[in-house]
Amino acid sequence: MESPAVEIAGLVKRYGRATAVDGLTLTARRGAVTAILGPNGAGKTSTIEICEGFRRADGGTVRVLGLDPASRELRARVGVMLQSGGVPPAMPAREWLRLVSRFSARPLDPEALLGLLGLAEHGRTPYRRLSGGQQQRLSLAAAVVGRPELVFLDEPTAGLDPQARHACWDLVRELRTAGVSVVLTTHYMDEAERLADQVVIIDHGRAVADGSPASLTGAERQLRFRARPGLDLDELLAALPAGSAAKESPAGHYIIEGQVGPELLATVTAWCAAEGVTADDLSIERRTLEDVFLELTGRELR
Ligand SMILES: Nc1ncnc2c1ncn2[C@@H]1O[C@H](COP(=O)(O)OP(=O)(O)OP(=O)(O)O)[C@@H](O)[C@H]1O
């Protein structure tokens, strides 16, 4: 049987006395997009860098395409998006991409990639004169130009404008269609929800949730509205059908769960009217990945 794209079991990474990754276990499937989410400092970059062979683990096992991450064989098979670029400052964008493509036996067309990522007009611009977002797109192009089997993308769309973000998403979808495995980290929940086949949420260096976006958010719908903070939810609950739940999170934002149908909707609006409360932005929605993320990882800043 073909080995998974990435298989991590009981991974531990320490920096001095601090434990950044604390027994992380996850499997990223071949040909799928796996998104690793987690608050700042959760251990995402440490994990990715261990998979890329840039850092050593202090415990546990990591297999990338069935091999040790340090294996030389992986260099030609794995694409890595470097945050700092690793590009000589005076190197024009097109020349860099062409140079990187020559390391591969079957590269993608550098010109097509430049076009896809909106860099065609900047092909002659030295790397140091590209904007931050353009440099980032060039790093993304360089990670995939060698037609790798697996790509690691650490926050590929951080700081990109909406157009560039959509172009990046299109590229990731094209990679998946071509059978490439993609492992990415992101702080954008909508990005994970749109792109990922599998989402792994990590917190304090451990996986706290793992599954498809739909399985994590569930099928249940919620009724949401905004109103003045501090409504008496016990009183509201007493009026709702049995089995309902109500919470205020954050202040002034109300979420009602249960059998969300006409009866519940009518009861909530009637109760609000009786209280003299206007329910703003009333909507019926499924839980979002952001809801799940905040429930699992809390609201404290890291
Ligand atoms: N080289 C290092 N030396 C010491 N501590 C480090 C080093 N790299 C990371 N850490 C610490 O390890 C923890 C995990 O960092 P890591 O960069 O893996 O988190 P992350 O999930 O990628 O965070 P972010 O979302 O902010 O990028 C943090 O507390 C960080 O301060």
TrEMBL record:
Pfam families: ABC_tran. It is a peripheral membrane protein. SMART domains: AAA. Keywords: Antibiotic resistance, ATP-binding, Cell membrane, Membrane, Nucleotide-binding, Translocase, Transport. GO terms for cellular component: plasma membrane. Residues 6-229 form the ABC transporter domain. It is found in: Cell membrane. GO terms for biological process: response to antibiotic. GO terms for molecular function: ATP binding; ATP hydrolysis activity. It comes from the Bacteria. This is ABC transporter ATP-binding protein.
